[in-house]
Amino acid sequence: MTTTTEPLSRPGFMEGVAAFFRSPRAVPYLLLLPAMIVILAVVLVPLLVSFWTSFTSYNLTKPATLFNFVGLRNYQRLLGNEDFWWAFGRTFMFVTITLNLEMLLGLGLALLINKITWGQRTLRTIMMFPMMFSPILVGFQFKYIFNDSIGLVNNALFDLGLISQPIPWLVDGTLANFSIIFAEIWMSTSIFAILLLAGLMALPKDPIEAAKVDGCNPLQVFQHITLPFLMPFIYIAMTIRSLDVARAYDMVRIMTNGGPAGRTELIWTLMTRTGYQNSQMGMANAMGYISILLSIAFTVFFFRKLTAARSFMGGAQ
Amino acid sequence: MANKILVRALLASCAVVALSGAAAAQDFDYGSFPDYTLKVKLIGGTQYEKLYTRIPEWEALTGAKVEIVSSKNHFDLDREIKQDIATGQITWCVGSNHTSFAPQYGDLYIDLAEAIPAEELAKYVPGTLKSSMVDGRLVQLPRVTDVSNLYYRKDLYEDPARMEAYKAEFGTDLAPAKTYEELKQQIIFFADPPNLYGTAFAGKDEGMSGRFMEILRANGGDLFDENWNPTFNSPEGVAALNWFKEIYDAGAVPAGTVNYTWDDIGQAMAAGQLAVDLDWPGFAGFYSDPSASKISDVLGFAVSPVGSAGVRGGWSGSHSFSVTEACDNKEAGTSFAVFLTNDESAMMEAEAGNLPTRSKTFDDVINYFNENGKTALAEMFPIWQASLADARTPPLIPQWIEVSNVLWPQLQAAIVGEKTAQEALDKAADDARIILEDAGIL
After folding, report:
1. How many folded domains does chain A comprise?
2. Is residue A165 part of a domain?
3. Per CB distance under 8 Å, which residues of B are interface residues toward A?
4. Residue-wise DSSP of B303-369
5. Residue A61 in contact with partner chain B when CB distance is under 8 A
6. What is the pLDDT of residues A20-66, one digit of tens each?
7. What structural domains does chain B harbor?
8. Both A103 and A7 in a single domain?
9. The CATH number of the domain where A173 resides is what?
10. Same structural domain, A147 and A236
């Protein structure tokens, strides 16, 4: 029986597939097909190739090494690589501090601008200026501002008589990381501000007016109505920024290139040096796949918070 | 009749002279490539691009067209070339190269010694040409050479109060340093932060590794032994690293120097903030330009110091052009590379203060500087030319940049006081050993 059904079933299956593609039900899939092919080509294939290379000794200038399988050697080396884990931890701290400060400052800016009735559009445009700069330019700008001998900050402090010796902004471990975080916040706070301003502008007025009639003070209105309403916007902004924060690589590259002595080394500067300067693309991709865990952790965390915030808004809690 | 014959004879002799002159100017046959488009990837940046104004001349000479498919700074260009190698997309013929980068590229480029007549190659500075070889192959034609010597402020060295104080403190006359020990002494002596520092050094990337290598070699040490075992953690290496650490600890250099690259140092020197600067020849034009530099009137030049072994480190490198193996018209590519490094091109680069790679250009350009009132550059050139005798490139192995990348963070760690010099160098030596073992060199 089996020998007879097999040849009969295959044409039947193929005919079924052909009939499906001729039917109107196939239209959505056919329309989506080009997009899916593009996504597969530009996202999935590079992901698979880079994942494969993380198990090889792939050297960028020796294409034949793409097939030199070394198993888990790259990952094993990274597990015992102190410099990598310091860079990993520093990146975690950098992302956490930067995103939270950007969120707080962006929220403050959005609340202030939302109160303005005249010139709000102009201010919104001006606020977006830092976003328009290339991170490389921002890097050069803040490298100059924080330069210990000719920088604006030290010169201003000298002129005000506040210091007698230059402050090594980009050398001291704490100050150098502060300077980089400062530059990143300057560049990207407006993204939060714009997104949160959009949230504020969409905020229904009725609950606020009702709360005021019920005797709530401005702080209570903010705490119980404005902020819960804004939370989905905040988490969406957080998610977008947590994935986008790696743009800071260019800035760090220019300001310190991870130095001195690795004090400002982030996973991105380390990966780029390993992959492109040292040509060890296999090792760099292994670093990338470990650091993806960090991105996934942030994204999952923010999406959970987003779901919770939306449930709250929907009156589930 | 006799007059007519005389006139004809004179015209004929003039024509012969003109033809022979033209032949002398064009010993190398640049060929003819009508309707051919040569694709090139060239280093970008103001100081490099003036030479490219000669490209139309080559196009007129050969009938070919040049398409610049990429023009980037050298680090970005290096990255792009590596990506081209990885993807197998070598669709271009001529690329900018550098002696420090060339060993990484394997067999990407042709051996130019097989494509260019020996009499043409003999016109290049022999040592520079030798440094352009990788594994016995001439993979690049050098266009300008870099070797460092001292720039100093004459007003400080000739200041009577400072001269007296220096003599009282050290018992010797204040004059440009002849040894690194003396240079360290002077750097600390001159420092009066925040307005004046003794010097500044490139504190990261290959700039840091290279300068360390230079002092290490001047002290009689080297990065590797003959079997490629790392030896820079030797006593000579520790002394070289401590040289940086001592001037850093003394506050005689800007604290931010560990993040400085060449441009930062150049700006500080031109602003009059540094007493001396051990630096590349390309800065001479900038420092001696009154519209850009505060020290143009007081600029002095001296040959770089020697180390404890009595020799110069002579860290050297050359920017260059290479022709790819994948090129569909290697003859045109070679013609282009020779044209951009010939006597006329070398003269154009030298007039801007760059150290040329053609022997003839040195005399020519000094005459040019004297005739055009650029006395500072005329004074500088013989000093830089003299130091070429001691010039040495970093190790010409593909792993040099990788080794440099494990070395400079450790040098920084010692300079800023996180580790002792010995600890830092031992760690870097261990890391370098792994790199060389993985590469099969050790």
Report:
1. 2
2. yes
3. 75, 78-79, 82-83, 85-86, 88, 104-106, 193-194, 197, 203-205, 251, 254-256, 258-259, 264, 267-268, 271, 273, 398, 401-402, 405, 408-410, 412-413, 415-416, 418, 438
4. PPPB-TTSS---BEEEEEEEEBTT-S-HHHHHHHHHHTTSHHHHHHHHHTT-EESBHHHHHHHHHHH
5. yes
6. 888 888 898 889 999 999 998 899 999 999 999 999 999 888 888 89
7. 20-147+317-389 (3.40.190.10), 149-313+397-438 (3.40.190.10)
8. no
9. 1.10.3720.10
10. yes
Facing residue for A278 by CB, picked from B83, B402, B412? B402
Q: What is the pLDDT confidence band of residue B278, given thresholds at 50, 70 and 90?
A: very high
pLDDT band for position A281 (cuts 50, 70, 90): very high
CB contact under 8 A, A61 and B85: yes
Q: How large is the average pLDDT for residues B217-233?
A: 96
Residue A208: inside a domain = yes
Q: Is A294 part of a structural domain of the chain?
A: yes
In the prediction, which pLDDT does B13 show? Answer: 46
Record the tokens describing residue A193, joined without a space: 């501000």
Segment A154-193, tens digit of pLDDT: 999 989 999 888 899 999 989 999 999 999 999 999 999 9
Within 223-282 of A, beta carbons closer than 8 Å to B belong to 255-262, 273, 276-281
**Closest residue by Cα to residue B249 from B442, B420, B400:** B420
Are A149 and B401 in contact (CB < 8 Å)? no
Q: How near does any CA of chain B get to the CA of A255, in Å?
A: 8
- The one-letter code for the residue type at B195 is N
Q: Is the pLDDT of residue A315 over 70?
A: no
Domain range for A35 is: 2-53
Question: Within 13 Å and on the Cβ side, how many CA atoms surround A46?
Answer: 8
Q: Is the pLDDT of residue A7 over 60?
A: no
| Per-residue model confidence (pLDDT) at position A9 | 55
Q: Which of A106-110, A195-199, A289-293, A294-298 has the lowest mean pLDDT?
A: A294-298
**CA B279 to chain centroid:** 10
A63: closest chain B residue by CA: B86
Of B82, B193, B256, nearest to A60 by CB-CB distance is B82
pLDDT for residue B11? 47
The radius of gyration of chain A from alpha carbons, rounded to an integer in Å, stands at 26
Residue B353 C-alpha from the chain's centroid: 12
Q: Identify whether A245 is part of a domain.
A: yes
